[in-house]
Amino acid sequence: MKMLLANAEAWPGFDTTVELLRQGGAGIDSMVSGIAKVEREAKVRSVGYGGWPNMLGEMEFDAGVMDGTTRDVGAVGAVPATLPVSALAHEVMKHLPHVMLTGAGARRFASERGFAVDEVLHPDSKRVWWERLQKEMSAEQQAAFPDIPLAPLSNTITDPERVRDTTVFLGRDASNGIGVVTSTSGWAWKYPGRLGDSPIPGAGFYADSRYGAAACTHTGEMTMRCSTSRSIVLAMRLGYTLADAIKLAVDELSELRTGFLAGVVIHAIDAKGNHQVVNYRCDEEIRYWYWDERMAAPELRVATAVKL
Ligand code: GLY
Protein backbone atom coordinates (compact mmCIF):
# COMPACT_ATOMS: atom_id res chain seq x y z
CA MET A 1 0.00 0.00 0.00
CA LYS A 2 1.36 3.41 -0.98
CA MET A 3 1.52 5.74 2.02
CA LEU A 4 3.06 8.98 3.21
CA LEU A 5 3.56 10.34 6.72
CA ALA A 6 5.06 13.76 7.47
CA ASN A 7 5.07 16.39 10.18
CA ALA A 8 2.76 19.40 10.16
CA GLU A 9 5.36 21.70 8.55
CA ALA A 10 5.25 19.51 5.44
CA TRP A 11 2.14 21.33 4.14
CA PRO A 12 3.81 23.12 1.17
CA GLY A 13 5.02 19.84 -0.35
CA PHE A 14 2.89 17.02 1.03
CA ASP A 15 0.37 17.04 -1.84
CA THR A 16 3.19 17.10 -4.40
CA THR A 17 4.66 13.91 -2.95
CA VAL A 18 1.24 12.24 -2.66
CA GLU A 19 0.54 12.99 -6.32
CA LEU A 20 3.91 11.60 -7.43
CA LEU A 21 3.39 8.45 -5.33
CA ARG A 22 -0.12 8.06 -6.78
CA GLN A 23 1.41 8.18 -10.27
CA GLY A 24 3.86 5.41 -9.34
CA GLY A 25 6.87 7.61 -8.60
CA ALA A 26 9.84 6.20 -6.68
CA GLY A 27 9.62 6.95 -2.97
CA ILE A 28 12.81 8.98 -2.44
CA ASP A 29 12.38 10.99 -5.68
CA SER A 30 8.78 11.79 -4.75
CA MET A 31 9.65 12.82 -1.20
CA VAL A 32 12.63 14.98 -2.25
CA SER A 33 10.35 16.81 -4.71
CA GLY A 34 7.87 17.54 -1.91
CA ILE A 35 10.47 18.56 0.68
CA ALA A 36 12.09 20.93 -1.84
CA LYS A 37 8.85 22.95 -1.72
CA VAL A 38 8.93 23.00 2.08
CA GLU A 39 12.54 24.23 2.01
CA ARG A 40 11.67 27.15 -0.30
CA GLU A 41 8.56 28.23 1.67
CA ALA A 42 9.37 31.31 3.78
CA LYS A 43 6.36 30.68 6.05
CA VAL A 44 7.87 27.42 7.36
CA ARG A 45 10.10 28.79 10.14
CA SER A 46 12.21 25.71 10.88
CA VAL A 47 13.39 24.48 7.50
CA GLY A 48 15.19 25.98 4.52
CA TYR A 49 14.70 29.64 3.61
CA GLY A 50 12.22 30.32 6.41
CA GLY A 51 14.48 28.84 9.10
CA TRP A 52 16.72 30.50 11.68
CA PRO A 53 20.49 31.17 11.42
CA ASN A 54 23.33 30.11 13.70
CA MET A 55 24.90 32.36 16.33
CA LEU A 56 26.86 34.23 13.64
CA GLY A 57 23.73 34.94 11.61
CA GLU A 58 24.60 32.35 8.96
CA MET A 59 22.19 29.70 7.69
CA GLU A 60 23.49 26.13 8.01
CA PHE A 61 21.23 23.37 6.71
CA ASP A 62 21.08 19.64 7.54
CA ALA A 63 19.33 16.90 5.54
CA GLY A 64 19.25 13.14 5.08
CA VAL A 65 17.73 10.53 2.77
CA MET A 66 17.55 6.77 3.22
CA ASP A 67 16.36 4.08 0.82
CA GLY A 68 15.05 1.27 2.99
CA THR A 69 15.37 -1.35 0.26
CA THR A 70 19.12 -0.91 -0.33
CA ARG A 71 19.82 0.86 2.99
CA ASP A 72 21.68 3.46 0.94
CA VAL A 73 22.02 6.77 2.78
CA GLY A 74 22.97 10.30 1.73
CA ALA A 75 23.33 13.12 4.24
CA VAL A 76 24.63 16.69 4.41
CA GLY A 77 25.27 18.86 7.46
CA ALA A 78 25.94 22.54 8.20
CA VAL A 79 25.63 23.36 4.50
CA PRO A 80 25.75 27.08 3.60
CA ALA A 81 24.02 28.89 0.71
CA THR A 82 22.21 25.87 -0.72
CA LEU A 83 18.60 24.90 -1.34
CA PRO A 84 17.14 22.34 -1.46
CA VAL A 85 19.55 20.44 0.77
CA SER A 86 17.42 17.28 0.83
CA ALA A 87 18.11 17.07 -2.93
CA LEU A 88 21.81 17.58 -2.21
CA ALA A 89 21.73 14.70 0.30
CA HIS A 90 20.14 12.59 -2.45
CA GLU A 91 23.00 13.57 -4.80
CA VAL A 92 25.52 12.40 -2.18
CA MET A 93 23.73 9.06 -2.06
CA LYS A 94 23.68 8.69 -5.85
CA HIS A 95 27.09 10.04 -6.86
CA LEU A 96 29.63 9.54 -4.09
CA PRO A 97 31.09 6.56 -2.24
CA HIS A 98 30.44 8.52 0.97
CA VAL A 99 27.39 8.79 3.18
CA MET A 100 27.78 12.32 4.54
CA LEU A 101 29.34 15.66 3.57
CA THR A 102 29.47 18.76 5.74
CA GLY A 103 30.16 22.50 5.47
CA ALA A 104 32.48 23.76 2.72
CA GLY A 105 32.91 20.31 1.19
CA ALA A 106 29.15 19.90 0.88
CA ARG A 107 28.91 23.33 -0.77
CA ARG A 108 31.72 22.44 -3.19
CA PHE A 109 29.89 19.24 -4.14
CA ALA A 110 26.66 21.24 -4.57
CA SER A 111 28.39 23.42 -7.20
CA GLU A 112 29.69 20.33 -8.96
CA ARG A 113 26.14 18.99 -9.12
CA GLY A 114 24.73 22.25 -10.52
CA PHE A 115 23.17 23.81 -7.39
CA ALA A 116 23.20 27.64 -7.46
CA VAL A 117 24.80 29.60 -4.62
CA ASP A 118 21.56 30.80 -3.00
CA GLU A 119 20.72 33.80 -0.83
CA VAL A 120 19.29 31.81 2.10
CA LEU A 121 18.99 34.26 5.01
CA HIS A 122 15.43 35.56 5.29
CA PRO A 123 15.48 39.31 6.22
CA ASP A 124 13.10 38.69 9.15
CA SER A 125 15.32 35.88 10.48
CA LYS A 126 18.30 38.23 10.30
CA ARG A 127 16.42 40.96 12.20
CA VAL A 128 15.20 38.61 14.96
CA TRP A 129 18.63 36.99 15.28
CA TRP A 130 20.42 40.30 15.77
CA GLU A 131 17.84 41.68 18.23
CA ARG A 132 18.09 38.50 20.32
CA LEU A 133 21.90 38.46 20.23
CA GLN A 134 22.18 42.15 21.14
CA LYS A 135 20.09 41.58 24.28
CA GLU A 136 22.57 39.01 25.54
CA MET A 137 25.85 40.75 24.64
CA SER A 138 27.68 43.44 26.60
CA ALA A 139 28.67 46.67 24.78
CA GLU A 140 32.25 45.32 24.52
CA GLN A 141 31.03 42.05 23.03
CA GLN A 142 28.87 43.90 20.51
CA ALA A 143 31.81 46.08 19.45
CA ALA A 144 34.08 43.03 18.99
CA PHE A 145 31.45 40.72 17.41
CA PRO A 146 31.99 38.23 15.81
CA ASP A 147 35.55 37.95 17.17
CA ILE A 148 34.42 36.95 20.64
CA PRO A 149 34.17 33.54 22.35
CA LEU A 150 30.74 32.22 21.43
CA ALA A 151 30.62 29.32 23.89
CA PRO A 152 29.76 31.48 26.93
CA LEU A 153 26.78 32.86 24.99
CA SER A 154 25.72 29.44 23.77
CA ASN A 155 23.52 28.44 26.71
CA THR A 156 21.66 31.73 26.84
CA ILE A 157 21.33 32.38 23.13
CA THR A 158 20.64 29.06 21.41
CA ASP A 159 16.94 28.51 21.18
CA PRO A 160 15.68 25.01 20.45
CA GLU A 161 12.20 26.14 21.39
CA ARG A 162 12.08 28.52 18.44
CA VAL A 163 12.54 25.54 16.16
CA ARG A 164 9.50 23.43 16.73
CA ASP A 165 10.26 21.16 13.84
CA THR A 166 12.40 19.56 11.27
CA THR A 167 10.59 18.35 8.18
CA VAL A 168 10.41 14.57 7.92
CA PHE A 169 8.74 12.55 5.15
CA LEU A 170 8.34 8.75 5.52
CA GLY A 171 6.82 6.93 2.59
CA ARG A 172 6.07 3.66 0.88
CA ASP A 173 5.94 3.56 -2.90
CA ALA A 174 4.34 1.33 -5.54
CA SER A 175 7.13 -1.25 -5.23
CA ASN A 176 6.66 -1.40 -1.42
CA GLY A 177 9.97 0.39 -0.97
CA ILE A 178 10.05 2.33 2.29
CA GLY A 179 12.16 5.47 2.50
CA VAL A 180 12.67 8.57 4.60
CA VAL A 181 13.83 12.13 3.88
CA THR A 182 14.61 14.90 6.41
CA SER A 183 15.54 18.58 6.23
CA THR A 184 16.09 21.35 8.80
CA SER A 185 17.89 24.59 9.58
CA GLY A 186 18.44 23.23 13.10
CA TRP A 187 18.27 25.09 16.40
CA ALA A 188 17.92 28.84 16.22
CA TRP A 189 21.23 30.59 17.05
CA LYS A 190 23.09 27.27 17.32
CA TYR A 191 26.86 27.24 17.75
CA PRO A 192 28.34 27.33 14.20
CA GLY A 193 28.99 23.83 12.90
CA ARG A 194 26.40 22.19 15.17
CA LEU A 195 24.73 19.20 13.54
CA GLY A 196 21.34 18.06 14.71
CA ASP A 197 19.92 14.58 14.34
CA SER A 198 18.33 15.23 10.92
CA PRO A 199 21.46 14.29 8.92
CA ILE A 200 22.51 11.49 11.32
CA PRO A 201 21.34 8.06 10.10
CA GLY A 202 19.96 6.05 12.99
CA ALA A 203 19.27 9.13 15.13
CA GLY A 204 17.05 11.45 13.08
CA PHE A 205 15.97 8.87 10.51
CA TYR A 206 16.20 5.22 9.52
CA ALA A 207 14.38 2.97 7.01
CA ASP A 208 14.35 -0.71 6.20
CA SER A 209 11.69 -1.77 3.68
CA ARG A 210 11.34 -5.17 5.37
CA TYR A 211 10.30 -3.68 8.74
CA GLY A 212 9.49 0.03 8.56
CA ALA A 213 10.95 3.48 9.13
CA ALA A 214 11.24 6.13 11.80
CA ALA A 215 12.16 9.82 11.85
CA CYS A 216 12.34 12.34 14.68
CA THR A 217 11.76 16.05 15.10
CA HIS A 218 12.56 18.48 17.92
CA THR A 219 15.46 17.79 20.31
CA GLY A 220 18.17 16.13 18.23
CA GLU A 221 20.57 16.34 21.18
CA MET A 222 18.50 13.54 22.76
CA THR A 223 17.79 11.27 19.79
CA MET A 224 21.49 11.32 18.82
CA ARG A 225 22.30 9.90 22.27
CA CYS A 226 19.73 7.10 21.96
CA SER A 227 19.91 6.28 18.21
CA THR A 228 16.16 6.59 18.39
CA SER A 229 15.18 5.94 14.76
CA ARG A 230 17.41 2.90 14.35
CA SER A 231 16.26 1.53 17.71
CA ILE A 232 12.65 1.57 16.55
CA VAL A 233 13.36 -0.22 13.26
CA LEU A 234 15.68 -2.74 14.95
CA ALA A 235 13.06 -3.46 17.59
CA MET A 236 10.53 -4.20 14.82
CA ARG A 237 13.09 -6.55 13.24
CA LEU A 238 13.31 -8.30 16.61
CA GLY A 239 9.53 -8.82 16.61
CA TYR A 240 8.22 -5.76 18.48
CA THR A 241 5.00 -4.23 17.25
CA LEU A 242 5.22 -0.65 15.98
CA ALA A 243 3.68 0.62 19.23
CA ASP A 244 6.05 -1.41 21.43
CA ALA A 245 9.08 -0.36 19.37
CA ILE A 246 8.18 3.30 19.88
CA LYS A 247 7.54 2.68 23.58
CA LEU A 248 11.04 1.20 23.90
CA ALA A 249 12.53 4.30 22.25
CA VAL A 250 10.51 6.63 24.48
CA ASP A 251 11.63 4.67 27.56
CA GLU A 252 15.24 5.15 26.48
CA LEU A 253 14.75 8.90 25.99
CA SER A 254 13.10 9.16 29.40
CA GLU A 255 16.11 7.47 31.05
CA LEU A 256 18.37 10.41 30.10
CA ARG A 257 19.09 12.53 33.16
CA THR A 258 21.84 14.92 32.05
CA GLY A 259 22.46 17.21 29.07
CA PHE A 260 19.79 19.21 27.28
CA LEU A 261 16.44 17.48 27.87
CA ALA A 262 13.22 18.56 26.11
CA GLY A 263 10.59 17.28 23.71
CA VAL A 264 10.97 14.74 20.92
CA VAL A 265 8.39 13.75 18.30
CA ILE A 266 8.70 10.27 16.82
CA HIS A 267 7.13 9.47 13.44
CA ALA A 268 7.13 5.80 12.46
CA ILE A 269 5.59 3.35 10.01
CA ASP A 270 5.80 -0.42 9.75
CA ALA A 271 5.88 -2.66 6.68
CA LYS A 272 2.29 -3.80 7.35
CA GLY A 273 0.91 -0.33 6.69
CA ASN A 274 0.54 0.90 10.28
CA HIS A 275 1.76 4.31 11.39
CA GLN A 276 2.12 6.18 14.66
CA VAL A 277 3.29 9.64 15.71
CA VAL A 278 4.20 10.11 19.37
CA ASN A 279 4.78 13.43 21.08
CA TYR A 280 7.15 12.84 23.99
CA ARG A 281 7.25 15.79 26.38
CA CYS A 282 6.32 18.62 23.98
CA ASP A 283 3.87 20.93 25.74
CA GLU A 284 1.98 21.98 22.65
CA GLU A 285 -0.34 19.80 20.54
CA ILE A 286 1.65 18.13 17.75
CA ARG A 287 0.00 17.38 14.42
CA TYR A 288 1.08 15.41 11.41
CA TRP A 289 0.02 14.69 7.83
CA TYR A 290 -1.04 11.22 6.77
CA TRP A 291 -2.16 9.73 3.47
CA ASP A 292 -2.48 6.22 2.11
CA GLU A 293 -3.95 5.05 -1.15
CA ARG A 294 -7.28 4.09 0.46
CA MET A 295 -7.87 7.79 1.26
CA ALA A 296 -9.32 10.41 -1.07
CA ALA A 297 -7.17 13.18 0.45
CA PRO A 298 -4.41 13.66 3.05
CA GLU A 299 -5.48 14.32 6.64
CA LEU A 300 -3.93 16.47 9.36
CA ARG A 301 -4.09 14.40 12.54
CA VAL A 302 -3.10 14.82 16.19
CA ALA A 303 -0.09 12.92 17.59
CA THR A 304 -0.39 10.77 20.71
CA ALA A 305 1.05 12.68 23.66
CA VAL A 306 3.25 10.82 26.14
CA LYS A 307 4.80 12.31 29.30
CA LEU A 308 6.89 9.92 31.44
N1 GLY B 1 15.67 17.69 15.26
C1 GLY B 1 16.28 18.80 14.66
C2 GLY B 1 17.49 19.28 15.33
O1 GLY B 1 17.78 18.91 16.45
O2 GLY B 1 18.18 20.08 14.72
Give a description of the structure:
The chain is of the alpha+beta class. The protein has one domain (3-306): (Glycosyl)asparaginase (Glutamine Phosphoribosylpyrophosphate, subunit 1, domain 1), CATH 3.60.20.30. The protein has helices spanning 14-22, 27-40, 85-95, 103-112, 123-136, 139-144, 151-157, 220-226, 228-237, 242-254; strands spanning 3-7, 61-67, 72-79, 100-102, 167-172, 178-184, 205-208, 212-218, 264-270, 275-280, 287-292, 299-302, 304-306. The strands form two sheets. Strands 4-3-2-6-5-1-11-12 form an eight-stranded mixed beta sheet. Strands 7-8-9-10-13 form a five-stranded mixed beta sheet. Strand 3 (72-79), helix 3 and strand 4 form a beta-alpha-beta unit. Helix 1 (14-22) runs antiparallel to helix 2. The longest helix is centred in the first third of the chain and has 14 residues, at 27-40. The mean pLDDT is 95. Residues 166, 184, 186-187, 196-198, 217-218, 220 line the site of glycine.
